[in-house]
Amino acid sequence: MFNKETEYALRGLVYIKLQNLKERRPGTLEVAKEIEAPPFFTAKILQRLVRSGFLRSLKGKGGGFFFDPGKPDLPIINLISAIEGDRSFSGCSFGLKQCDSDNPCPLHEKYAPIKEALNKLITEESVQSLAEKVYKKEFSLNEFLK
Amino acid sequence: MFNKETEYALRGLVYIKLQNLKERRPGTLEVAKEIEAPPFFTAKILQRLVRSGFLRSLKGKGGGFFFDPGKPDLPIINLISAIEGDRSFSGCSFGLKQCDSDNPCPLHEKYAPIKEALNKLITEESVQSLAEKVYKKEFSLNEFLK
DNA sequence: TTATTAAAAGACAAAAAGGTCTTTTGGTAA
DNA sequence: TTACCAAAAGACCTTTTTGTCTTTTAATAA
Ligand code: FES
Ligand code: FES
User: Fold this and answer.
1) In percent, how much of chain B has pLDDT > 90?
2) Count of C-beta atoms within a 10 Å radius of residue A30
3) What whole-number distance in Å separates Cα of residue B103 and Cα of residue A119?
4) Span A9-27, pLDDT tens digits
5) Cβ neighbours for B72, distance < 8 A, ≥ 6 positions apart
6) Tell me: the pLDDT tens digits for A121-132?
7) pTM for this model (two decimals)
8) B91: CA distance to ligand 2 center in Å?
């Protein structure tokens, strides 16, 4: 569905937010371990997210990653776009230059509604909303991870 | 959505089927040109499809690619599985080891129905059904291709 | 039976994705 | 003010994906 970097970023940010809710600021090693991602790669990804302004960090003792409390929620469509580019769910499944109901590919009729649902999903859900769900124990963050 | 190889295979096979309907057997160069894919890469992909048994070919003058008239339709899920492996639309969007309603990730609730729709789509549609749609001029094969 | 045609086979290579590691920088706390 | 800690930066590497090209094999037609 998503590529590895997006997947790790998503899981990592949800984990960080979850810890922030508990007044904690996890570091790279902790995040990597909890989301079962490669530690160095996780570090690199988190660094990029800080540079992109999605996340904040503190160096030194007691340091780690955290969300700016003043910022609004981060819809995952923004995250996906930043990492994978705007290819998101705008393109034609068949490879036409653009997905256009006026010049539809043979998959369009059935694919367009699905694409719309996907776009709705990633627009509506945010890192924070996902973390909330995990916090309420309704959903799992890392059980049976790949 | 799909990777390049799958995309070219899909478009290529639909084009070939379309030409077969017109009693023609296109060759690699023609297919590549019509679906706007790299010629050598297209040739390699078609060769693989022949080896996989999805397609047939004839060498020499008047040669080219064609579908075995005796064979049943080819659902595109089979094509996708053969090229990309079974990763298809079985996995968890969040990266959990498996998508399981008993241990759902925070995206599951909204993503599962979408996944189901995708699986329905690729199971129901076949190379032949897609070619039919193009044949009836209802849908476009290569207008505005990437 | 030979020339021609077109696919098959497979080596090679560029680009992108995924991942590792070392060094530097900037904080914290004793 | 020193020792330590943890993120930042960036070089480097591996694997996968995407793509190119040459040589060989097989079919057809003259
Ligand atoms: S035109 Fe192909 S999916 Fe819309
Ligand atoms: S468990 Fe994640 S999509 Fe189903």
Assistant:
1) 81
2) 18
3) 24
4) 999 999 999 999 999 999 9
5) none
6) 999 999 999 999
7) 0.92
8) 7
DSSP state of A100: -
**Chain C bases having any atom below 7 Å from a protein CB:** 4-11, 17-22, 25-29
Q: What is the maximal distance between C-alpha atoms in chain B?
A: 59
**Ligand 1 interacting residues, C-beta cut-off 6 A:** A 92-94, 96, 99-100, 104-105, 107-108, 111-112
Find out if CATH 1.10.10.10 is the number for domain B1-71: yes
Judge: B139–A10 Cβ closer than 8 Å, yes or no. no
* Average confidence (pLDDT) over A61-73: 93
Q: Which nucleotide is nearest to A43 (CA to C1')?
A: D7
- Low-confidence residues of chain B: pLDDT under 50: 144-146
